[in-house]
């Protein structure tokens, strides 16, 4: 994935694939994104500034997809609680609050 500093890029970390971040200081400045969130995404991505750097980063990502995998996992673990389980956990909680037995499928 190629992205600026977007929430989609953070969610993409869950699939543990190479992420290329286009550095856009003016975007960061205008949106008041906290510096620690900028650092988290930068740690998990290859940062680029120019079109030639993007092309090289894509080639490197395809050739070395596990590069930065540890960083991607670390950031995803910090940001997401039990990814993929929210609906089941919320449904279970609602059944308990309504004092109902879950429906078997």
How would you characterize the overall build of this protein?
- There is one protein chain.
- Helices cover 56% and strands 8% of the residues.
- The protein is mainly α.
- It has one domain.
- Strands 1-2-3 form a three-stranded parallel beta sheet, with helices on both faces.
- Strand 1, helix 1 and strand 2 form a beta-alpha-beta unit.
- The radius of gyration is 18 Å and the shape is elongated.
- The mean pLDDT is 93.
List keywords for this structure.
single chain; mainly alpha; 6 helices; 3 strands
Name the structural class: mainly alpha
- The overall pLDDT, averaged over residues, is 93
Distance between the termini: 36 Å
Run of helices and strands: EHEHHEHHH
> What fraction of the residues are assigned to beta strands by DSSP?
5-15%
Give me the count of strands. Answer: 3
How can the largest sheet be summarized? 3 strands, parallel
What level of helicity do the residues show?
55-70%
The low-confidence parts are none
Count of helical regions: 6
Q: Write down the domain tally.
A: 1
- Gross morphology: elongated
């Amino acid at each position: 994935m190629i992205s600026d500093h977007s929430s989609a890029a953070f969610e993409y970390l869950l699939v543990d694939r190479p992420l290329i971040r286009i550095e856009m200081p003016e975007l960061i400045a205008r949106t008041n994104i906290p510096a620690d969130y900028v650092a988290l995404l930068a740690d998990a991505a290859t940062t680029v500034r120019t079109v030639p750097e993007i092309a090289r980063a894509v080639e490197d990502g395809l050739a070395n997809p596990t590069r930065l995998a540890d960083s991607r996992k670390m950031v995803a673990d910090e940001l997401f609680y039990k990814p993929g389980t929210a609906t089941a956990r919320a449904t279970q909680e609602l059944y308990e609050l309504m004092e109902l037995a879950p429906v078997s499928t």
